[in-house]
Hints:
Number of domains of chain A: 2
Order of helices and strands of chain A: HHHHHHHHHHHH
Subcellular location (chain D): Cell membrane
Order of helices and strands of chain B: EEEHEHEHHHEHEHEEH
CATH superfamily of the domain at 1-73 and 202-262 in chain B: P-loop containing nucleotide triphosphate hydrolases
Oligomer: heteropentamer
Number of strands of chain B: 9
Largest interface: A-D, 80 and 80 residues
Helix content of chain B: 25-40%
Number of strands of chain A: 0
Bound molecules: adenosine-5'-triphosphate, the ligand Cc1ncc(C[n+]2csc(CCO)c2C)c(N)n1, magnesium ion
Main location (chain D): membrane
Largest sheet of chain B: 6 strands, mixed
CATH class of the domain at 1-73 and 202-262 in chain B: Alpha Beta
Transmembrane segments (chain D): 34-52, 59-81, 87-109, 121-144, 150-171, 202-226, 246-268
Keywords (chain D): Cell membrane, Membrane, Transmembrane, Transmembrane helix, Transport
Shape of chain A: elongated
Strand order of the largest sheet of chain B: 5-6-7-3-8-9
Strand content of chain B: 25-35%
CATH architecture of the domain at 1-73 and 202-262 in chain B: 3-Layer(aba) Sandwich
Number of helices of chain A: 12
Membrane topology (chain D): Multi-pass membrane protein
Strand content of chain A: under 5%
Structural class of chain A: mainly alpha
CATH superfamily of the largest domain in chain A: MetI-like
Radius of gyration of chain B: 18 Å
CATH topology of the domain at 1-73 and 202-262 in chain B: Rossmann fold
Distance between the termini of chain A: 19 Å
Amino acid sequence: MRRVLPVLVVTLAIVVIWYVAAVWLNSAWVIDQAARAGREPSFMDILRGTMNQDRPLLPPPHQVLAELWELTVEKRITSKRSLVYHGLVTLQATMLGFVVGAILGVALAIGIVHSRTMDLSVMPWAIISQTVPIVAIAPMIIVLSNAVGIEGRTVPKTIISAYLSYFPVLVSMVKGLRSPEREQLDLLKTYNASRWQTFVKLRLPASMPYFFASMKVAVAASLVGAIVGELPTGAIEGLGARMLIGSQFGEPMIMWTALFAAAILAALLVVAVGIVQALAARAMGQVAR
Amino acid sequence: MDADGAAVIEARDLDLVFETADGPVQALKGVSLSIGRGEFVSFIGPSGCGKTTFLRVIAALEEPTGGTITVNGVSPDEARRARAYGYVFQAAGLYPWRTIAGNVKLPLEIMGYPAAEREERVRKVLELVELSGFGNKYPWQLSGGMQQRASIARALAFDADILLMDEPFGALDEIVRDHLNEQLLSLWRRTGKTIGFVTHSIPEAVYLSTKIVVMSPRPGRITDVIESPLPAERPLDIRDTPEFLEVAHRVREGLRAGHAYDE
Amino acid sequence: MDADGAAVIEARDLDLVFETADGPVQALKGVSLSIGRGEFVSFIGPSGCGKTTFLRVIAALEEPTGGTITVNGVSPDEARRARAYGYVFQAAGLYPWRTIAGNVKLPLEIMGYPAAEREERVRKVLELVELSGFGNKYPWQLSGGMQQRASIARALAFDADILLMDEPFGALDEIVRDHLNEQLLSLWRRTGKTIGFVTHSIPEAVYLSTKIVVMSPRPGRITDVIESPLPAERPLDIRDTPEFLEVAHRVREGLRAGHAYDE
Amino acid sequence: MIWILGSLAAWAALWWVNTRIAASALAERRAGRVAAPLIFGLAMLIVWEGLVRGFEVSPVILPAPTAIAAKFAASLDVLWIDFVQTFVKGALTGWVIGCGAAVAVAVLIDRSPFLKAGLLPVGNFVAALPIVGIAPIMVMWFGFDWQSKAAVVVVMVFFPTLVNTVAGLDATDRMHRDLMKTWNASYWQALVKLRLPAAMPFIFNGLKIATTLALIGAIVAEFFGSPIKGMGFRISTEVGRLGIDMVWAEIAVAALAGTSFYGAVALAERWVTFWHPSQRGGR
Amino acid sequence: ADDLTLQLKWVTQAQFAGYYVALENGYYEEEGLNVTIKPGGPDIAPTQVIAGGGADVTVEWMPAALAARERGLPLVNIAQPFKRSGMMLTCWKDSGIKTPQDFRGKTLGVWFFGNEYPFLAWMSQLGIPTDGSPEGVTVLKQGFNVDPLLQRQADCISTMTYNEYWQVIDAGVSPDDLITFKYEDQGVATLEDGLYVLEDRLADPEFKDKLVRFVRASMKGWKWAEENMDEAALIVLEHDETGAQTEKHQKRMMREIAKLTAGSNGELDPADFERTVATLLAGGSDPVITRHPGDGAWTHEITDAALK
Lengths: 289, 263, 263, 283, 308
Ligand SMILES: Nc1ncnc2c1ncn2[C@@H]1O[C@H](COP(=O)(O)OP(=O)(O)OP(=O)(O)O)[C@@H](O)[C@H]1O
Ligand SMILES: Nc1ncnc2c1ncn2[C@@H]1O[C@H](COP(=O)(O)OP(=O)(O)OP(=O)(O)O)[C@@H](O)[C@H]1O
Ligand SMILES: Cc1ncc(C[n+]2csc(CCO)c2C)c(N)n1
Ligand SMILES: [Mg+2]
Ligand SMILES: [Mg+2]
């Protein structure tokens, strides 16, 4: 209860702000409509008119929730409109991309920490890789994987998702793996510990706070990657496709529900990482302060 | 005394300069010293005179900027790779994510001791430093002195030829300290290890050592090397004998001189 | 001796139990102690007996699980908020992103001393601990003993009523230690501060204190409280007088008893 | 075939040069630190050129670096206009606002355990809204010009910076905190003198990750509506026109700008967190 | 059966009804073809897909195809099911726009991604600069939907007669509030939705034979769709994997599309080709294509054989 109450209060506050914003943003349309019909809308008209528009600038919470409920609970999972189905499609790509990205990020960080050559030459290019707008090359990735003979959307989506998520892991892990104090390193030096041993026994455990902070960012980035990867693939399945379809066909509610489904998914993933982090911290003897 | 004469550590004309943002700091200057196999050498000197630095040079943790040093006839780094050193750092430096037993076990894991022997050694050595019940605790759950004892245990858990100890007993009370002094002496006699030992306690230095090295600061130099006339067998009450007091006096004079030089 | 009698710290029946993963640890049990204004109280006892814990309770860093304690008639936390404490921790605990001078200056900034006075105090107190040239160095550029002196300087830089020092001189050589002992005594006489002082050195405890508290471990209890018969004015060679040796003897016996109890 | 083998050989040779640089004293000096990545990049370009020529890849799929360079040189004026629009106005503004807000919010919610318990989970939720979903909405709200791009960037950089800052504010040493307590430092004093400095390595982590996100965000947001300038606009338009060489010229600008931006933040980090073991050269 | 892949220019909708009808009614099968239809989307450049070997035939607009040809991707028009252009600008009436000359000083939404060529050609014919100056127009790169108009971020936006225009209407705007400018009526119409292949592949007689059968079946599909509009719309809906299209919208779209395909038997009219080229060449300072692409850009070989 003590943990739920604050969340409830904050959520409530946000909902209130949201309603106010919805009325404010959506009212323009109501007024415009009325003006074209030659009427002067009353405040109540505006209020009513903003609560359930087909194409709202900002749909009020109840509208999003109702739609979400309909698309998740009331639809069969196998339905093309079921958000659970689309969510699972996206989740699969996210998890694949996240795993690949995390492994790649950690592996590169290990390389960079252990090899001066890698440090000097790879790091700048890892940065550059992130400045390449992924959406620009996503179509190329698909065209190329097509040309190479890879059918299906999973591989390109995984690539894009991993591409976005490896970087936060890399940056944090380089820092984390370098965070042991001199004395801690020297101790292992006197044991003539191998690089591998130094890594496993010291650098890795010392990097854990950085690791988990980056995992939370990376899992969110993976999701974004999966969604971006769903755009140029014919926009058929996945939450990204839903957003696009909603945007394309002028159906904001599809877009908003997909957006929310994605955010809920992201929040769940971040929470999951948080739980793993808490478990790991307990296993490593750190208590929550 | 117990030394068989062969030089294990041979330093000649060592210089070490640290480059810092506001100019160089000369931590060691023209340090020459020869330590024979099985010797127990204490280093004593004012704070900041370079004792830690010298120990670090021996253990290949610091590269001297001048002079030469050999350990077992090879470079310190080669000796390090042959796992010649056990090192007790001035700060306990326990890994916070490992229990006390886990910390003591660490070098054993690294050096590939079999699992059963590891447990046995950890048990024994924790008993030696009187931490038997605390194997499952984490470092921050121990008092300062207990942490330091854990770090001593960690260095004693495996069999290194050369034991380098940087103020290991600084945070211990007299009784435990006396006890550990005796334990260390008997371990040294039993194993014939070569020991380099930094301390600020003159009686401790005299009681333990076959050779006492007095250093003075800025730049860190050796001002006196005293060969102890005391016998190998040393009961605690040897500390009241005139020989003992005489050596202690000489050390104190050397120390005072260093300070005078400083100020 | 110098105490004017009014109790500054009044502990009654303090208990403190740490809950750890493998069961509770009783760090303090039934500790009652009264410390008068201007007293210099030393705590001595085997490693792990609860000295640090008791000091932390006084400074409101730890909440006792039983008993009562007042400082200046109020709760330790209120006293803390009135900035009654200067605390020297067992480990130096310098902030790595500040120079030595910056570290010493830190409490002054926090307590809002004017800038000019800050500089002056930093200069003076660094001189006191013999670190004059090192104000611009960073902590990792100093030796262990120098770091500890810096942390002492930090606690002395501002005017706290109550000075709590946890083995402040543990990593210092005899000469500096003697020097700082004298300095501390004169500061205490001059300012009338109340001082709580943890040490493992019996002579140091006897030399400095008006009252010596002997503790014994598991569970941490007070086994003896010795009022020193020595005069307020104490030259260094008071340490050779029979009164001094007698007190030292009594402390040593108390300590030994604690250990016997333990093993 | 010759092109392919030749390029791979060139790669091997340049990698060897880099290994030598890394091993030599040069690695500690600026010259080495600049040369090594350049050589690495050169090697990559040579391999790219070789492979494109060797496999005769169509220029509308992947142009050769030389072709891109030629296009780059010929389009400097357009590239500059796009750079100002997207990087300076969109990315930079958004980065400053987003990171500033994230640090501020981290500090704010950190002060109140109640807010922390309430806002952090909700913040995760809000800030994890995917960019492609937000971009159309921001265009809807803030119009077609750079303001909507900056808004997307704000949302994108917020979360990484927040997470890292919160982690950093928790990363203080027990003794350091206790010291502050004994001095009865006020909340703000402890924050400014202890927790923020201690958090800096973490915050800079977030800031560095945010630099690249900011650029991606500003560019991608332009795909969802923009005036007829900007890097994202140019990229999306030229892809449709098969002007792939221009697309890569823009990507090159993005890479240059992004790397300089990242480098600037990394320099600031070196300067601010010089005391952290990872910056003390004590590898 | 012979495999063949068709890349569409946009998502599954009645705009491509003919191909879906041919697939559903088995016309391709009758010709011994196994056709895969790949829907397009906002990020998919059909020209790039075909260049990468992801498709054999693509549906593309002629301006984009000719521009690609000039950039070294030799696309050839093999058939032209669309006779007329469906592109137009849709404006708010209350913005005061009555003739194209009134665009000056206004904000116009335009599709880019290779679809901007007809607009640029038109503006340069009108002599209206597109740089945002007071006597010129401010151009926005319009996204995938009609929001810029509804939110009044633009005075006019690009719409297709069969699609976006109706999205505006569906949003509750009365046709009376709008004024539209069809490219067709302005004399700047360019050919839309033709079938294109890579030139070098035409050297292969086997491939050519496949194309002949493909075009024949496709045109059969188109003609069926024109006659059975509601059924055709339902077939399209059947193939819409997104489930986002509505029956009402697709049926309406089919009716509008039928107006555009009417009058084409699939054969490209060289006069239409020349008109398109002329429009594009007139692009003023920034012409879409710089020189006449020559007659290699189209061929009647396939349609001749298919429509025999
Ligand atoms: N945070 C903690 N959690 C659990 N146990 C603790 C904690 N802190 C201290 N202890 C335990 O409390 C006891 C007393 O510790 P304390 O630090 O007070 O000893 P000390 O007298 O200062 O010893 P030393 O002279 O070695 O510093 C020890 O047994 C220690 O293990
Ligand atoms: N990493 C470093 N960078 C710069 N100067 C250093 C560094 N390490 C040590 N020094 C300087 O070298 C000198 C010797 O330091 P060292 O740690 O060897 O002293 P010490 O004899 O061990 O002193 P203590 O008894 O206080 O531990 C000191 O003046 C110190 O400031
Ligand atoms: C990003 C993007 N925007 C517009 C079009 C133009 N377009 C080509 S076909 C078609 C069908 C009409 O619904 C439309 C709108 C495009 N291809 N890509
Ligand atoms: Mg030292
Ligand atoms: Mg203690």
